Amino acid sequence: MSQALRAAAxxxxxxxxxxxxxxxxxxxxxxxxxxxxxxxTPAGLPDLESSTRVRVQARQAFFFAAAYHRGWCEQGKPVxxxxxxxxxxxxAHPTAGGGYTHLLDNNFVVVDTKQDLYDHAFFLLANAWxxxxxxxxxxxxxxxxxxxxxxxxxxxxxGGWIEGDYAYACRRQNPHMHLFEAFLALYDxxxxxxxxxxxxxxxxxxxxxxxxxxxxxxxxxxxxSWTRLPNAKGDTVEPGHMMEWVWLLxxxxxxxxxPVAHYTKALYARGLEIGMDKSGLLFDAVSYTGDVIDRNKRxxxxxxxxxxxxxxxxxxxxxxxxxxxxxxxxxFTYYLCASTPGSYVDQRGxxxxxxVDVAPASTLYHLIVAAMELLDHVNAAVK
Length: 383
Known about the structure:
This protein has twelve helices and 15 strands. Helices cover 56% and strands 9% of the residues. Strand 13 (347-348) and strand 14 form a beta hairpin. The protein has a three-stranded antiparallel sheet with strand order 2-3-4. The protein has a three-stranded antiparallel sheet with strand order 9-10-11. A three-stranded antiparallel sheet has the order 12-13-14. It is mainly alpha-helical. The relative contact order is 0.12.
């Protein structure tokens, strides 16, 4: 392993500890409710006019619980606990018998009560990490209640769960990807095989529907029978999600021994081939044939490229370490470059110009996971 990769890991760790955590502790939390603001403005101040997605509270609870667990932020424990307490008190669904609402206004009052599967994946993840970090049974109990609620109200006879309690246009792989992650996190936190069994169910969905063997890609949008949509939307591929699955599948392999290299190598290679711009950033969306659908590039795509590259280093890909190191450099060059330390740019355009200059709180989830994965990889190589 090169010194450059060790330096990249230390650089991102330092940014999380010394820049991001102090900024978001100081400016990200609304003092009266203890809720997390949706985003910071380019000036590094909370956007007081923005509505707030309820799942942002879950993603930030994860962020602060993980930071506390790493020893990076002593205040992370009360902040994470307060975020989930706020959700219980304010954003629990009023009539569904479980689960959470979707959207708050800028006064943190619920304005959209729909229940969305993607949102709930992050509440499972947040509770898994709060249980792991704080060792309090209430978080595991809440996770089990949420799983039972999803099964009872949104379980599908053909696998997975439907999108929620609203009229949806299609079924998405994305919520299932994050449920795959959440169940793995619950297994890691508890050692209980019942959670790993749920991961196995989702792995079967990946194998039978999400992954396309012919083209080596991950499809996104399906009908209710998990048949890919017969239109341009059905042709869509998100390179960042392909990279994210490389990391998740490797995690599953390390817990079960199940061989996954056939998938991870294909997703990584094809993702680089059709998903990467000349600058090294990942397009937001392309067609499985390689046509670019959306030339914008979100910050989170690079974090997933870094994580996938670490998997490929371990699988013996000779080019992956250089890609990981460049990925961290690109993260700082293009995104972690806001004038306020600890803030960031969310999205670059077709010519890598800034097109979204606000800093959504939800992106911190991606950034801290990339930092933890880099450090775990480096530390494992040292032992």
